[in-house]
Structure formats: C-alpha cells, structure tokens
Amino acid sequence: GGLGDVLGGLPPAMAANGHRVMTISPRYDQYKDAWDTEVTVELKVGDKIETVRFFHCYKRGVDRVFVDHPLFLEKVWGKTASKIYGPITGVDFKDNQLRFSLLCQAALEAPRVLNLNSSKYFSGPYGEEVVFVANDWHTALLPCYLKAIYKPKGMYKTAKVAFCIHNIAYQGRFAFADFALLNLPDKFKSSFDFIDGYDKPVKGRKINWMKAGILESDKVLTVSPYYAEELVSSVEKGVELDNIIRKTGIQGIVNGMDVQEWNPLTDKYTTVKYDASTVADAKPLLKEALQAEVGLPVDRDIPVIGFIGRLEE
Asked: SS3 breakdown of the chain: % helix, strand, coil, rounded to 5?
C-alpha cells in the first residue's frame, strides 16, 4: 500500500540528495537480487534468544536490508500463503509483538554491524551517527529500545528517531499484561498505557504501540500537511491519539511521487507512451483501450475518473 510506495520512492530521492540511505524490512519473501550477508546477531525476544541474519541488495543508491528469521519468511511463505500481518484481514498473528520486537531490535543493530561497500561514495558500516525513520506501529519499539539498551551504554549518543504515521487507524493495541513480552524497563509503561472502550483483544486497559512510538521519538511526521491537521482535529480523526499528538506536535510532509516508477514515457503497462508534448494525442487512445478492456462504452469524449484509496467503512 502507501507505506510500500513511500519506502520504494523516498529513499532513492534522499540518496539523490547525497544522503547514505538504508531501508530495513522483514524478509517476507526470497527477494530477487538480495543476497545473504552472512552477518548474524542474537537478540532477546520475549523469553528467548533469537538469531537473525541480514540479506542485502543495493539499488538506486539505497542499501536495501532484509531481516531474515522464520517468524517472517517461513510464516508468510509457507504456512499462510503471504498473509503478512495476520491469518485474515484485521486479525493479528498471536506472535506479532514478538515479530515486530525482533524487527525493531534488528534495525538498531544493522547500521553498526553491516559492512556495506556497494556505493562508490560511502563504505564500511553506517556507524552510530544516524537518523532512524520509524514507520507505523510495527516500528514503535525502536525509540524505546534505543533509550533502554543503547544510550545508557554510550551508544547512538547523537542518533535521533522520527516516527512517521501513514495510517492512524492501525495502532498495535494489545493486552496490558503483554508489556512484559517487550523486555522494556517499567519506566516505559506509561508511554504504552491506554484505555479504550473496546473488548478486543481484551476489555479496558491495553498497551498501545503507536502511542509509545509518538511519545518516545524525537519528531513525529505524517504523509501530508492536511493529514497532520486532521489527526489533531478530533477524537474520531485521531482515533483516540489526538491528544497525545497535540502534546508532541506533528509535521505533515506531503507524499511525493517516484518519477521513475510513474513515468508515462517508460510505463510497461501502457501501449501508447507519451510525454508533456504528446499527452493530448495519447490519452484519448489509452482511454479507449481502458474502456474496451473493462467493458465500458468506448468514447474518447466521456471523462474517466480514477480513484486510488480504500473501500472501507
């Protein structure tokens, strides 16, 4: 969805501005061109020690790093036929908190342990002078682990975290007792503490990952200036986190567009290619082709309106 588009397009744009950029995501698939770095780290997840490996490829100036662990690849590839977040839409896998705890911890290790030399401008590990951009609730433990594990040891002294909200409706609300799974000091409890009127997953008191991500990060961002206004405008629009966001402040930076991906001169999905000078001739032809394909009356003078968004209550 939108998060995928942002992570596809924004990092190459940042790299083009001279930044050294790494994305870190779960290895849900046998991604083409992403090779095993043979670097492993051990992380405490729940009450177990888990080993993760890092896979890597370098594209358009960006180090694409994938966290390899059975909780990601085997779960999604084999057993669930590519359901990433839960067995059915809107339902969490029972171990989602452990899965995303693993992702957050792995993301904190990657800049330190991966010795990456694909770029002609940068070489070696990224080191500790970095900015983490955490996206949505799944990454909300990152600023917490940064403060709990690394900063007390004098690591990542100058590192900062920006927390970016793509969709406020998904917050990672779980039973309050589950806080123990996260291996965080008790002083973080208040950042997670959340009470709502719903019975799922339990009644009343919960932990809320996104609340903690907002409170523990250095800066809170979202995907447009208007969405930033909307999130603080009411309880409904902010889905009960509006007061927390008003407290921290939020900055909306409008989602850009990847002009390599969305280029009508090179688009492999269209039969007629065009640019600014030929658009008026090409578009009516493409419209007719679309109308024919989907069974609409073929008429180049009728407007066709495209809507990209969710069909959701």
From this structure: 35, 20, 45
| Domain membership of residue 307 as a residue range | 263-312
Number of domains the chain contains: 2
Long-range contacts for 15-18 (Cβ within 8 Å, ≥24 apart)? 15/60, 15/61, 15/62, 16/61
Q: Is residue 50 part of a domain?
A: yes
Is 258 contained in some domain? no
Looking at the structure, tell me whether residues 166 and 278 fall in a common domain.
no
Residue 257 lies in a domain: no
Query: Within this chain, do residues 48 and 154 fall inside the same structural domain, yes or no?
Result: yes
Cα distance between residue 276 and residue 210, in whole Å: 42
Measured at the CA of 206, the angle between CA 165 and CA 73, to 5 degrees, comes to 60
pLDDT (tens, 9 = 90+) of the chain, 313 residues, equals 789 989 999 999 999 999 999 999 999 999 999 999 999 999 999 999 999 999 999 999 999 999 999 999 988 876 666 688 888 877 899 999 999 999 999 999 999 999 999 999 999 999 999 999 999 999 999 999 999 999 999 999 999 999 999 999 999 999 999 999 999 999 999 999 999 999 988 999 999 999 999 999 999 999 999 999 999 999 999 999 999 999 999 999 999 889 888 999 999 999 999 999 999 999 999 999 999 999 999 999 999 998 877 776 5
**Inside any domain, residue 185:** yes
pTM of this structure:
0.92
∠ CA 247-253-256, nearest 5°, is: 155
